[in-house]
Amino acid sequence: MAWLVTGGAGYIGSHVVRAFREEGIDVVVVDDLSSGHAEFVPVDVPFYRGTLLDGELLETVFREHRIAGVVHIAGFKYAGVSVQRPLHTYEQNVTATAVLLAAMQEAGIDAIVFSSSAAVYGTPDTDLVTEETPRSPESPYGESKLIGEWLLRDQGVAVGLRHTSLRYFNVVGSGSVELRDTSPHNLFPMVFDALVDGRTPRINGNDYPTPDGTCVRDYIHVSDLAVSHVAAAKRLDAGERVEPVYNLGSGDGVSVGEIMATVASVTGIPFTPEVGPRRAGDPARIVASGQLAARDLDWRMRHSLTEMVDSAWAARQAVS
């Protein structure tokens, strides 16, 4: 039996694929390569290029492989852009998930791990987010992820779908120099690209009520994240109880200023970041508790900030 990883050619998905293989579990990948890379998929992993909106493609995958369950990572992940492209975001993240769930139901596949997002919380009124923190998404992206969780919940009631959703903030680092974050919207790629181009990285505001005046967030290593996706799949496969949602959080967070200082140290490129105005709606501190995931999903922060930056920089340099 194999697990299907949707979005398995992407930054996070490709690490999840490798984490499955390290556990001796076969995988199949579906990815439309809108943001993924075919070379991120191991050559001996069955790979189907296509969109989850294509129900016939999913029927083919489920017919040609014995699939135990699905890790659903594919989606449109850019919160800021989603405000300008709400219909596209809902199509990619809500309609596609509904098509996937329908194909799973038709094929008799009843287990799914959903890659959700801490964007479902919006701007919480607490500086330590738990699974019980009220959900109040502030973008079509965050809303689409919350709707995805509802779809799983409702399929659980209707047909007994076994499911869990993993919520997290900022994913960084690399588990291999062959795999890197190529998103133009994420902090590490933006900082590295600026340094490679001879530009000075920029901080949005340094007058927040935090120790160094910059925003504090959860930053978690992609390999740690991947381990917990596989742990969730294994619990579902074994028929063990899982919570409907888990936060994969650090519990304490790091500041943007700390990240900039670590980047300068690791890269050997000294710089003082430019400071721009605050971005509207950016809270001073948002950090999630990972206690439930630590209990059930082998979740823990195995990498220091220096190791996160060092691994990401090594992957970036591999293509320079």
Automatic annotation (TrEMBL):
UniProt KW keywords: Carbohydrate metabolism, Isomerase, NAD
Cofactor(s) the protein needs: NAD(+)
GO biological process: galactose catabolic process via UDP-galactose, Leloir pathway
Domain NAD-dependent epimerase/dehydratase: 3-249
Keyword Isomerase: yes
Reaction(s) catalysed by this chain's protein: UDP-alpha-D-glucose = UDP-alpha-D-galactose
Matches recorded under NCBIfam families: galE
Protein name per its UniProtKB record: UDP-glucose 4-epimerase
Organism: Leifsonia tongyongensis
Lineage of producing organism: Bacteria, Bacillati, Actinomycetota, Actinomycetes, Micrococcales
Gene name per UniProt: galE
